[in-house]
Amino acid sequence: MHPLALFSYCPKCGSVRFVENNFKSKQCENCGFVYYFNSSAATAIFITNSKGQLLTVRRAKDPAKGTLDLPGGFVDLHETAEEAIMREVQEETGLIIKKPVYLFSLPNIYTYSGFDVHTLDMFYACTVEDLTGLHPDDDAADLYFLDKEEIQTEEFGLNSIRKAIKIWLTK
Q1: Which CATH number describes the domain made up of 40-169?
Q2: pTM of the entire structure?
Q3: Residues in the chain with pLDDT values less than 70
């Protein structure tokens, strides 16, 4: 089912005359408003220590509760992707990072509260020397540094993260 099928009312005027305009949008026949269903922005980061080990997060919440993940999350309103990844890292790990380096992006579908949120996941990298304050918090149940040889992609619960790990391991 297309995500727009779940939207029955015009978000501008509330009319039920909110119909398919094309594959990407619905239009209100009452007020003319056109709504495009676009991806939400999300971030994740490959944080390595001085030994080259990767910092991973054990997810504390669904979706994929209990599986491994990378630190990251959604970009808030009025926030850059770089601001979002720095905020998310601090919320989940207690670490303060500076100058995350953009690597690549991947599309994803993140199911939250039974709703498929289409995302564009932007991946960053940084090396952290100072681990002062490192502790799991927010969406993180635990934190682990893993050697590259220890990483098993099937232990990561989200599709785009598994794909990103595979890409990162080949570089």
Answers
A1: 3.90.79.10
A2: 0.92
A3: none
